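Morning - iron/sulfur cluster inputs below, output right after.
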Amino acid sequence: MKKSKKMLDKKRLEEINFPYEEVREVQDDLILSVQNALEKGKNLIVHAPTGLGKTAATLAPAVSYAVKNKKTVFFLTSRHTQHFIAVDTIKEMKKKFGLKVLGTDIIGKKWMCVQPGSRLLRTGEFADYCRAVREEGKCEFYTNVRDNSKVSVRAKAAIDELEPFNPMHTEDIINHCKNKKLCPYEVSMLIAKKSSVIITDYYYLFHPQIMQSFLAKLDKEIEDSIIIIDEGHNLHSRIRDLATEKISTNTLLGAVREAKKYGYDEALEWLVAIQDVLNEMSKSMKHNEEKLVDKKKLVDKINKIRDYDSLTAELSFIADEVRSMKKRSYIGSVARFLEAWKGPDHAFTRIITMRDNVTTISYRCLDASILAGDIINSAHSTIIMSGTLTPISMFRDLLGIENAVEKKYESPFPSQNRLNLIVPLTTTKYAARSNAQYKEIAKVLGRILDAIPGNALVFFPSYFLRDSVNSFLECRKTIMIEENRMTKEDKKELLDKFKEYKDVGAALLGVVSGSFGEGIDLPGDLLKGVVIVGLPLQVPDMETKQLINYYDKKFGRGWDYGYVFPAFNKILQNAGRCIRSSKDKGVVVFLDERYVWPQYTRCFPEDSDLEASKKPEERIKEFFNSI
Ligand code: SF4
């Protein structure tokens, strides 16, 4: 019996071009679920912790189905390492089975651009800059690809040269195109047009203004697409960010300077007047105060300066002219914001904030499903997966996913290799915060860190709390500190230094939503423990309050969806740094008395095997002695 099952498995795995020799039991089940969803044209939501081999288990059946049924697979991920893994998976499939399929890896256009200095621009600014230089024929990399809107001979030759190496990592395409003086993005789009699998960022399919033109340029239809969304827990907040626009008095200051510099006298008057409007609206506001603003209030005030729509159009036009002289246009940012401000009220909120003498006004999206739902449900099948899609129902609701099969997998790693320990000895509750409390937290944390034999990551709800506790912290480990807004290089340097301490032990103190909370891998002996200090439930800001109200009306789950679950999602991501392979052994400590309260313990995944202890150092030592 066993033998025939194995043979059937092998046959089935070959049918889907599964590129690896062995398939794990849960991977097997995931492949079947993907196949079922594809056959029935359903969506699939998968909670699958690290180590399951999700990429191969979804890509292999999806690409095989796509080839047979003339579909296109979009593998969407925000992580650089995942782009790499997906490209290598396709490479393996082609190598092992001689699969005749093209794949393309496309990252954000800005990151593929070879124009000097373009990476320093903000995303919206870059889009405007690129459009302006293309329209004016001022980008030679572009004109070398498109000859009077036809594909140039030079570009065709470069694409032919690249085909034997397909699929290529974006870095390689960029280098190749740079040498040939071709725009890497345009070349990649031409290859993508012929590809059955496209590995790219969420942005291209979920940006409200980008998706239509992206698909049209590729000559693909959403109905014939299979979308695989990796790290899907981030998608709803990413989409809300993409649909949000804001400007501040600093933006206006830049716009005023720009108008002066380039001699746009009339625009200068309008911009100064808009600046006055913002200053007047925030006149009575205190530091850190936030208020809701009515759409009409701003529109009426702008109308007094000049007709709102004409003003927006004229600023847009001027911004294009400015961009032909320099890459970035503040006037363009103002125009983009004014255009967005007149958008719908439903599912959006308008907030004015005063912070450090800077006024910011924003038009914020509250509901990712208004953009995501149509795309996800129009595709042939959408597979959304992550190691922290808990509860699955929340992600289904927030993204507006219909007709979905939901699957939940447990961690494939031996449960005896991990200890999830709640330590209910302290709290970071706002009402309990004081120097005495920080001292108490530092005392318990020091004992926990000393008991962990090796490196530990410690996550706090905020930098303020981290610094307050750290000022009292005493332990034998070397303490390293995550700075606010670290660059990629700084982050790498600190992580490399941290790794060097694996034998003697260091503690890297960061924050829950900081640089090290997700997307880093410290396998084996590089990390022995993660400590989450407190529950990252801050006093809700205006946007969070609006989210809570909105989700309450729509789903009857305002606090859960807008406040509690997002906080848990972050700490579960932090906790996930600890065990990255079947050989890793480590402890995750949740240091706050609230973690034993039923309203919060329900937020942990079912396979968490939580223990609680008021003598954490003893339990941690016992755990490490037993493995
Ligand atoms: S066309 Fe290509 S090279 Fe030119 S600005 Fe745009 S992305 Fe950069």
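Note: The first strand starts at residue 43 and ends at 47.

O.
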